[in-house]
């Protein structure tokens, strides 16, 4: 049972434009969500998180939106830069240590 | 601040052989995690330690996988005997405490032939 789904395996965006990465979840007990970025041959690095008591969290060029009724979250990157090219994973947790990760979306930002 | 260290970075073995991976977490981090990431999938938690005690090993295939965290710092994950389906990247992560952000190491890529 895939509790966290990232249905777009890849995404290409022009430099300077907005990148929107989507994530859906099925577990209604999830109350905290995270996005990780992963470069080749490196481990995932934490990017941004959001608690279920919020519907938006911003950190510089990165904004995460949470729609609890739709069980959907999205990561917006504005403006996109070539250095943002990586695989992005979303993860959910139900107030415990256990992160459930999605399968990832490979973002390519074209110069 | 040094990050999570893992070794080796790459390992190729034949099926039925044994292999061990080592992880050194960020200094002061009480919680340590081992994940398995199969190609095309997200990381899956295998085992979590709080200091030197096991908190969750529900997804660890205990007939062939074992892990220990002696003295509550470094950790070792062992596979014996390895199967073809164990080919994956094994990621170690640590966090200050259980509910804090997890920081990942670079991983060990295991290929079982």
Give the distance, in angstroms, between the N- and C-terminal Cα atoms of chain A. 38 Å
Order of helices and strands of chain A: EEEEEEEEEEE
Order of helices and strands of chain B: EEEEEEEEEEE
**Low-pLDDT regions of chain A:** none
Please supply descriptive tags for the structure shown above.
heterodimer, A: 111 residues, mainly beta, 6-stranded mixed β-sheet, 5-stranded antiparallel β-sheet, 54% strand, globular, B: 113 residues, 7-stranded mixed β-sheet, 4-stranded antiparallel β-sheet
TL;DR?
The complex is a heterodimer of chains A (111) and B (113). With 111 residues, chain A is an all-beta fold.
What does this structure look like?
- The complex is a heterodimer of chains A (111) and B (113).
- With 111 residues, chain A is mainly beta.
- Chain A has no helices and eleven strands.
- Chain A has strands at 4-5, 10-14, 19-25, 32-38, 45-51, 56-59, 62-67, 72-77, 86-93, 100-101, 105-110.
- In chain A, the strands form two sheets. In chain A, strands 2, 4, 5, 9, 10 and 11 form a six-stranded mixed beta sheet that branches.
- With 113 residues, chain B is mostly beta strands.
- Chain B is 0% helix and 49% strand.
- Chain B is built from no helices and eleven strands.
- In chain B, strands 2, 4, 5, 6, 9, 10 and 11 form a seven-stranded mixed beta sheet that branches. Chain B has a four-stranded antiparallel beta sheet with strand order 1-3-8-7, with no helix packed on it.
- The radius of gyration of chain B is 13 Å and the shape is globular.
- The mean pLDDT of chain B is 94.
- The interface between A and B is medium-sized, with 22 and 25 residues.
